[in-house]
Amino acid sequence: MTMSRKGSRPITVDGADFRWRLSRRPGDDRAPLTFAVERAEEPGSVLMVSLPCGRPDNHVGERTIAVRPVLVAGCVRQAVEQGWDSAQRGPVFTLKITEEELTTHLGEPPTYLIPFLWGMIPEGGTVRDLPRATQIWSR
Fold first, then answer.
1. Which residues, listed in sequence order, are joined to residue 137 by a DSSP beta bridge?
2. Bridge pairing between strands 93-96 and 113-116
3. pTM
4. Does an H or E element contain 111, and which?
């Protein structure tokens, strides 16, 4: 199984080139935030990473994070330690990340965001933390 190149982003981890992309939106708003990783050249097995938070576009107000390259690289390294061989063709390798592993991969506690009607509020924040809207008048 290979993933679509459309919407994927390149990343180099320990000298190996990979592509990663957020997974498509499932029908369930309670589904976790997931992303897929595979080798950039001669793809083999796909790594599917599941994070302990919701997608940014969930409608139930579940907290979320921004997936950054440092997180992707940490997950790739952890998967390789657990036996993922990116060059070997085979089934999808699934990696479920815990809160503690998330902090380790990011190098700091994650900054969670809460989806809100007009944007994202930092966890523990209020409506005042939303960016101010700018009204554009037609001439």
1. none
2. unpaired
3. 0.80
4. none
Tell me the C-alpha to C-alpha distance, in Å, between residue 76 and each of 17, 19, 27, 54, 115: 11, 11, 27, 20, 27
Q: CB under 8 Å, gap of 24 or more: what pairs does 97-100 form?
A: 97/49, 97/50, 97/51, 97/52, 98/52, 99/52
Strands ordered across the beta sheet of 47-54: 9-13, 16-22, 32-39, 47-54, 93-96
Q: Are strands 93-96 and 47-54 parallel, antiparallel or unpaired?
A: parallel
Q: Among 48-52, 71-75, 114-118, which is the least confidently predicted range? A: 114-118
Q: What is the pLDDT of residue 26?
A: 66
Written as six digits, the tokens of 82 are 């657990």
Q: Measured between alpha carbons, how far is 5 from 107 in angstroms, rounded to an integer?
A: 29
Number of CB atoms found within 10 A of residue 27's CB: 5
| Mean model confidence pLDDT for the chain | 83
pLDDT higher than threshold 80 for residue 112 = yes
Beta bridge partners of 32: 54
